[in-house]
Amino acid sequence: MLDIWRAVARLGDDWEWGGRDGRNSISDAEQLLCLMHPASLVDGFQLDRPDDTHPDVLAALRAMGDSIEIPRKLIRVLIDYMRTYTDEDGAPDFSGGSYFRTEDPDEKVADEQSKLHVVDSYSMSITLTLATLGFVRVFRSRVTRADLRTQVDELEKLASIRLSAAMVGLLRSFTVNAFGENTLPWRTLITTVRRRGQSDDRVVSDLQDRLQEVRAGLRDLSIGSGQVELENSNLLFECGWTWGTLRGAPTIDTTEPVGVQGSGLAERRPLLYFTTIALAGIVDLTTERTRVLRLLNEEQQRLAAALQLRYDLTRSYWATVASSEASADGGSGDRWPLEELPWRTSDGEESDYFSLLVTSLVTHDLSKRNAPDTDLRRVLSVLEELSSRGRVTRRALANDIALQLHTPGVPLRLGGSEGDANPRLTWVVSDFSVMLLKRVVTLALQARSPELRSQLTTLADQVWDHLNSRRMDDGGTGALWDQPAAIFGVGNEFELPSWYHTERVMECLVMLADLVLAPPARSQRLYEIARDRIAEAEQLFDREIFAGSLEAGPSIRGSMQELRAHLRRAQRVLTEKPGTADALASEVLRRLDQLAAAQQSAME
């Protein structure tokens, strides 16, 4: 993390915007989040308390100034971002800009198309504005200068407006796609969840039963898009987020000054990538930090509650579809649909990248319901296979089609973006390796047994080794990403960093910091061994006390007092650190045996 900060600080004293893909509302937010994300979430990386800034942080950001100048510069840069992506009417701009591509490389993105708002920008803005608001709330108490306080107030106002507008944008991008019998989406879904010997009618009936609560919840939506007629039980459906504001999405009644809510173009079909991105932003709205610092006002809390409902429905839907185990005889099937690689979307496209996205959706559900390790192991097996198929933990073959996951990436067709004279747009995603690492670390944070956590951290190390080999270490942008040609030997050599990749790597590093600082996974077997060993040590210690060891000479007295301290420490840490408790008890037993042996020798 410090290496990335050091590289970001070297980009220029006046904050050099832009990167490999040029400037847009997403890339610039990703560049800022390379600093703001760890600064808001990792102990020791805070920048909002100048007097407490860690020396290593100051050394890494030396090019940006001292502990006083760094937060002031951040405020100026954040205000610059908020102003840049605000239109003439004062409404926040969430356009995709230079991230948009066309299906035909010979065609150009039209100017009006580059201004289309996209879910990626909504979600990224939620993360950035929450980090900004938290930074401002803490830093304001250290501000004494009137001009700086004015800047802080302006930044807080701009960030709050952008946060509200981003939430409104996500509410208007949620969609439910209902489809009837024998359509392509219907056949694809039936094939995905079918188990041995099931008829179509049985598959539909079972699926409808399992999705009954989701269907009822979708019918009760009252704010934003997503309302669709689901009374017909013969219809199947899918839900999630499309790429931008949904065509025909209703406006949101809100007291927040979010500006004009324009009409949307996005087709009704949800896209896995944008659904995953949207859920990541919604999670940030519900964190403990957001609640403790009271980053949301009353109206924003209402919007967040509406998004949380969609989060729960989407999580439940995809977990039901991807991890269904119902078989023809009503028993438990051998494999989840998720385990049948690659995943096929409702439009008939299939890719290992889609399997990774569905894995992401399933892990949201595993986390919410505190799933047992048996479920986590099934997802781990999928991630291990994907890491191999994606040539992350295995070497690439000659003319390997799997390399397209990394370079140039997987193109996603943005249905509805085309016009009479404009081409259909695409969105190219090439973050397979980073998303794989994020999923592995997410599971490791949930794992209860040391064995499973060890397996997951081993896989995380292997994926990190792969990513570390893709750093742009050329002396100018060292520690930034991404250079896939460095490991695959194919594709272009890039001179400029990609904030798309670097921000995602930083996000993984923040999660890895959480994993390192998390309590060790507790082994029930080790707990029981340590408990029994402590009991034996206590009994032998009491026997020595009864025999008068504390009345012996100063040396033995001091030794016994030290052993008593070891036993008390072992008892205190037994629940959280059974291995440490076992080591302490073993040391007590060893020294008691030495004392007993010495006494026996003296008697002889």
Describe, in plain words, how this protein is organized in 3D.
55% of the residues lie in helices and 5% in strands. The protein has 22 helices and seven strands. The chain has helices at residues 2-9, 25-41, 55-60, 69-84, 111-114, 119-139, 146-171, 184-193, 200-210, 212-219, 272-285, 288-292, 298-322, 352-368, 373-389, 432-446, 450-468, 485-488, 499-517, 524-546, 554-573, 578-603, and strands at 100-102, 174-179, 236-241, 343-344, 350-351, 410-414, 425-429. A hairpin with a 5-residue loop joins strand 4 (343-344) and strand 5. Helix 2 (25-41) crosses helix 6. The termini are far apart. Mean pLDDT is 90; it is low at 326-332.
Please outline the helices and strands:
Blueprint (H helix, E strand, L loop, with lengths): L1 H8 L15 H17 L13 H6 L8 H16 L15 E3 L8 H4 L4 H21 L6 H26 L2 E6 L4 H10 L6 H11 L1 H8 L16 E6 L30 H14 L2 H5 L5 H25 L20 E2 L5 E2 H17 L4 H17 L20 E5 L10 E5 L2 H15 L3 H19 L16 H4 L10 H19 L6 H23 L7 H20 L4 H26 L1
Antiparallel strand pairs: 1-7, 2-3, 4-5, 6-7
InterPro entries: SCO2524-like
Organism: Cryptosporangium japonicum
Protein name: SCO2524 family protein
Order of strands in the sheet with most strands: 1-7-6
Secondary structure class reads mainly alpha
* Helix proportion range: 40-55%
**Overall 3D geometry?**
globular
- Poorly predicted runs: 326-332
Q: Rounded to an integer, what's the Rg over CA atoms? A: 28 Å
The span between the termini is 63 Å
Helix segment count?
22
**Beta-strand share of residues:** under 5%
| Sheet with most strands | 3 strands, antiparallel
- The total beta strand count reads 7
What do the pLDDT scores average to? 90
Order of helices and strands: HHHHEHHHEHHHEHHHEEHHEEHHHHHHH
